[in-house]
Amino acid sequence: MDTRQKRYNMKYVILCCTVAAFGGLLMGYDSSIISGAIEPLSEYFQLTPAETGWAVSNILLGSLIGCFMAPRLSDKLGRKKSLAITALLFTVSVVGTAIAHNFTVFVIFRMIGGLAIGLASVISPIYLAELSPSKFRGRTSALYAVCCVGGQSVVLLTNYFITKSTLPDVMINMGWRYILATALVPCALFILFIAFIPESPRWNVLKGKYDEALDTLTKISNREHAESVFNEIKHSFSDKTAQQHKARLRLDKTTWPLLIVGIGLAVGNQISGINVIQYFGPTLLKNVAGSTDSALLQTFWLSICQFIGVLAGMMLIDKVGRRKLLLLGAITSCVCLTYSFIAFYYHLPGMLAVVGLFAYMIFFGMTWGQIVWTVLGEVFPTEIRSICVGISICAMSMANFVISSTFPIMNSSPMLLDMFHGGFPLLLFAIFSLGMYFFTFRYLPETANVSLEKIHALVLQKFNVEADLPEPTTSSKAAESFDIPRH
Question: Which is it for the CA torsion 421, 274, 390, 465, positive or negative?
Answer without folding.
Answer: negative
